[in-house]
Specification:
By secondary structure, this protein is of the alpha/beta class. It is 26% helix and 24% strand.
């Protein structure tokens, strides 16, 4: 039973004992990726190499599912299909977030390595697989199209439900195409170094942002959005933790598992509002097609 719990001026929705209702939750299981997409909102294009173990994912999902109740939980990377335990991860996610739509966000290049993915998702139910093209290169796009036809469409009778979306039973498949659509840069390059925008209008930056209502769990911490989640990891790798331009944003820690109930209520309420960290992103973004991704392996190997 959904209850509306008022705390001071805030309204927090809870569904029984499930925890706080939120529309979306991303769960990053790895920062490794077979692509380097320019402008990745999590700095993945800079070669970060971290993968959450199956044991930690099991433990962490059990914990967070007691406190958060997302309508949609997205397993993301990096490239999530790189994780050798992706099938088991999907099952753990379904067990813990039992009525959320479970989504896998992938570039589709590794589908041949995970040929049972659709079958596994069908057994879990209420799932979605999103394949994103990150290049205009015809050879690469043909490879992705082949993988889609061979490992998604081939054995199932999909019904088209939108221009780029299909459904079979309780599984939805969709494609997105950033090189031919609008793409937003979340950081800028100044004299060869990545810098925040610091436009001085976090509210305007929040309203312009394409991921402003997508909290993310990375390494068992809950962050407001993907761009802030890996900031410290990235700056540490490049010995720039003392960069004064980034200092205001490094103060943001997200939530670890030692939060109070008031901490969590404040976090959930702020999903729908701007935060000071929004100032690192542009207030007046210029949306352009995404530049082609760099492919990190030979296509014939997959």
């Amino acid at each position: 039973m959904i209850q509306s719990v008022k705390a001071n001026w805030k309204t927090i929705l809870r569904d029984g004992d499930r925890g706080h209702w939120i529309p979306y939750l991303e769960w990053m299981i790895t920062t490794s990726c077979d692509l380097a997409c320019p402008g990745c909102d999590r700095f993945i294009d800079f070669g970060h190499n971290w993968t959450e173990s199956l044991e930690k994912i099991q433990h962490n999902m059990e914990f967070w599912s007691e406190h958060l109740d997302p309508d949609n939980i997205t397993i993301i990377g990096g490239e999530p299909l790189i994780h050798p335990k992706i099938y088991e991860i999907c099952k753990i996610a379904r067990t813990n977030f039992d009525h959320s739509q479970l989504e896998i966000f992938t570039n589709g290049l590794l589908l041949p390595k995970r040929p049972k993915l659709i079958n596994k998702l069908l057994k879990l139910g209420n799932c979605k697989i999103s394949v994103t093209y990150h290049t205009k290169d015809k050879i690469v796009r043909n490879k992705i199209d082949y993988n889609i036809n061979q490992y998604i469409f081939k054995d199932y009778r999909w019904r088209q439900i939108d221009q780029n979306a299909w459904q079979y039973k309780t599984v939805i498949f969709e494609t997105t195409d950033p090189p031919y659509e609008d793409w937003q840069e979340y950081r800028q390059e100044v004299s060869g170094e990545l810098k925040p925008y610091n436009d001085g209008n976090p509210e305007k930056s929040y309203n312009a942002c394409g991921v402003n209502q997508f909290p993310i769990i990375y390494n068992n911490r809950l962050y407001k959005c993907p761009p802030i989640s890996m900031l410290k990891t990235h700056l540490k790798k490049y010995n720039r933790l003392n960069d004064l331009d980034w200092a205001p944003y490094l103060k943001y820690k997200g939530l670890g598992t030692d939060f109070t109930e008031n901490d969590l209520e404040e976090f959930v309420d702020n999903i729908f509002k701007p935060h000071a960290v929004c100032g690192m992103c542009p207030a007046n973004p210029i949306n352009t097609p995404q530049p082609d991704a760099v492919i990190k392996h030979r296509l014939e190997k997959i």
